[in-house]
Amino acid sequence: MLRKKSFMRDAKGNARATLITRGPGSLHAHRRAPSLKSWTRAPQHMFGVADCVMLENYESEEALISNLRVRFENDLIYTYIRGVCISVNPYQDLEIYTGLLIDEYYGTQIFELPPHLYAVANEAYYTMKEETTDQCILISGESGAGKTEAAKQMLQFLAACSTDTGRSKKIRDRLLQSNPILEAFGNAKTTRNDNSSRFGKYMEVQFDFKGEPVGGRILNYLLEKSRVMHQLTGERNYHIFYMAIAGGDAAWKETSGITKSAEDFKYLNQGGVCHVEELNDASEWSNMFDAMEGVGITSDERASLLNVMAFIMHLGQITFNGASQATVANPQELKQMCALLGIDEVVLEAALVKNTIIANNEAVTTDLDPTQAAYARDALAKAVYSRCFDWLVERLNSSLAECNPDAAQSRSTVMGLLDIYGFEILAVNGFEQV
């Protein structure tokens, strides 16, 4: 079998004619046999024990750690504990995520080839097909462990190897295109990881009885809202802000008032790192726009999203005067913000410097001092960004639903990918860490 794009095809380039609905053992005649130069045949696989259950002193924690260390030192980052795959992030490209390796792991038993994410994804997929049972792959670990990359690679494997009759191309493409969009709005540089996911994500792929994708759904939870207004030293805000400054066209930046550098915006410069050598913000901006077009997000929707991002950047620039009664010290920023979202200046200023409590159907309004007004400003920034992110996830879900309106009726099983983001001990902790 030859692979063309993300579909399995025969030697003539035609889509696979037969629908294989049995377990991995029935696929051996169709998959690519490992070549002598393949990573799966590399000599470093002799080091360590691939499955920790087979350790002589399997009850010893020291023996387990030593085995992981030996394998890691030989560029073997995956180790099994039976059905659990332990991954140690190498923070470099080991060239172990390729189309050839996808072909090799396609249709194998989990212990037939060296430990790899592809083997786990393959086992889950064919267990789902053979037993007609829902499956879920749980990806957990501390920040910087490589959870987000693991989820992307598993999704890529499922998109490439699941049954294809030619009808599921759009749903496959949109599932993959959702990644750069969510990463732009939900990922950020931390002290441990330049592209750390700052929200929890559950991605669900729905399959029909043949094992072909017919739908998908994304659930998000625990977005780290505090990052919008505060970052630790050495960290950045969410990628989208820096991408907009680096990649936005001059006309949009002029209209939105985003003509300064990232270092000039309070919400973007607190970590002291606005540029990361390993990240090309301008290139990622272009990739995100291509993905948005691919999933059907309209130009008006994209413009509204960008205006909200510009609104938040300007909101961080707002300062206050006064002693017991705060007033906005830079009304020009307020005017720019209102123009972006079509808000009345009086209403927005009142929301920032006054507090209204409704009790017994009566509204009681009190003035805020500058410190309290600053808290109100930051709370507004977090709330706006959170709602914007929730809207984006729902928009992606509606895009996936458009591919097959009858997915709920035609689905037979579900494969879930649960990416639980890691927590750190921060100098300033909020409820997002609880």
Structure description:
This protein is α+β, with helices and mostly antiparallel strands and 434 residues long. The chain is 41% helix and 15% strand. It is built from 14 helices and 14 strands. It has helices at residues 61-73, 99-105, 117-131, 147-161, 169-186, 239-247, 250-256, 266-269, 281-295, 299-315, 331-341, 345-353, 370-403, 407-410; strands spanning 2-4, 7-9, 78-81, 84-87, 135-139, 187-188, 196-197, 200-207, 213-221, 320-321, 327-328, 354-359, 362-367, 413-419. A 4-stranded mixed β-sheet has the order 5-14-8-9. The longest helix has 34 residues, at 370-403. The protein is elongated. The protein starts with a strand and ends in a 15-residue tail after the last strand. The relative contact order is 0.12. Mean pLDDT is 86; it is low at 1-30.
Task: Summarize the structure in short.
By secondary structure, the protein is α+β, with helices and mostly antiparallel strands. It is 41% helix and 15% strand.
Could you say which overall geometry the principal axes of the C-alpha atoms support? elongated
Strand content: 5-15%
What structural category characterises the helix and strand content?
alpha+beta
* Rg, Cα atoms, Å: 25 Å
Topology:
Layout: E1 2-4, E2 7-9, H1 61-73, E3 78-81, E4 84-87, H2 99-105, H3 117-131, E5 135-139, H4 147-161, H5 169-186, E6 187-188, E7 196-197, E8 200-207, E9 213-221, H6 239-247, H7 250-256, H8 266-269, H9 281-295, H10 299-315, E10 320-321, E11 327-328, H11 331-341, H12 345-353, E12 354-359, E13 362-367, H13 370-403, H14 407-410, E14 413-419
Parallel strand pairs: 5-14
Antiparallel strand pairs: 1-2, 3-4, 6-7, 8-9, 8-14, 10-11, 12-13
Helix pairs in contact: 3-4, 4-5, 5-9, 5-13, 6-9, 10-11, 10-13
